[in-house]
From TrEMBL:
Name of the protein this chain belongs to: Pectin acetylesterase
Source species: Brassica campestris (Field mustard)
Family annotation (PANTHER family): NOTUM-RELATED (PTHR21562), PECTIN ACETYLESTERASE 1 (PTHR21562:SF54)
GO (cellular component) term, any one: plant-type cell wall
Keywords of this entry: Cell wall, Cell wall biogenesis/degradation, Hydrolase, Secreted, Signal
Pfam families for this protein: PAE
Molecular function in Gene Ontology: pectin acetylesterase activity
Span of the signal peptide: 1-25
Domain of life assignment: Eukaryota
InterPro entries: PAE/NOTUM (IPR004963)
Enzyme kind, highest EC tier: hydrolase
Family listed: Belongs to the pectinacetylesterase family.
Locations listed in the record: Secreted, Cell wall
Task of the protein: Hydrolyzes acetyl esters in homogalacturonan regions of pectin. In type I primary cell wall, galacturonic acid residues of pectin can be acetylated at the O-2 and O-3 positions. Decreasing the degree of acetylation of pectin gels in vitro alters their physical properties.
């Protein structure tokens, strides 16, 4: 066997080993990298590979008045599904309590719960957001979205306080985010199942 064939044979065996051991292969990660200009990669954390998913900002939301407490655009983290899970959506609406006074809302708009400019650019998708069948047997291959909470009224308000320079646009944020990621997975979100949750 010539050296060229031997190299390709060894590379093939290595890839088969990676896929059969449940570790994401390079081609799968390449498929997701750059998806919607969102970075998706795995990193080592406490001896295990952890899926890391980048923040997508909804730039078109501003024109619709769908903005965070401070007026910045909302964001979400999206991991596109694959295989039989590609037409199904697991949508996590980030929790974080309401801001119940003008003073508290003004404080909050200077945090990641009130401004997308202060949100983490990359989050770990673990547990029920994991892409590993051993960790998340029911939803590991579904389209998964984590919608960041930044409106102070759990995606339900549609008002403002001009004097305090606060925007309460949760309802608009929810609609703008849903519209933005619809069709960005492997299929339209209208085609499959949805599960929403918050914690």
């Amino acid at each position: 066997m010539d050296a060229f064939s031997l190299c390709w044979s060894l590379a093939g065996l290595a890839l088969v080993g990676i896929f059969t051991n449940g570790v994401t292969g390079f081609d799968e990660m390449d498929l997701f990298n750059g998806f919607n200009d969102t970075s998706v990669y795995e990193k080592q954390e406490n001896g295990a590979n952890v899926l890391m998913v980048g923040l997508t900002l909804v730039q078109a939301a501003s024109a619709k008045g769908a903005v965070c407490l401070d007026g910045s655009v909302p964001g979400y983290h999206l991991y596109p599904g694959y295989g039989s899970g590609a037409n199904n959506w697991f949508i996590h609406l980030q929790g974080g309590a309401w801001c119940d006074s003008v003073k508290f809302c003004q404080y909050r708009k200077r945090s990641s719960y009130g401004s997308s400019t202060l949100m983490e650019k990359v989050l770990a998708f673990t547990g029920i957001l994991s892409n590993k069948a051993s960790e998340n047997p029911d939803f590991y291959h579904w389209d998964k979205v984590k919608v960041r909470y930044c409106d102070g009224a759990f995606f339900s308000g549609d008002s403002e306080n001009k004097a305090a320079q606060l925007q309460f646009r949760g309802k608009r944020i929810f609609l703008a985010v849903m519209e933005d990621f619809d069709g960005k997975g492997n299929a339209s979100s209208k085609a499959g199942k949805y599960i929403y949750f918050k914690f």
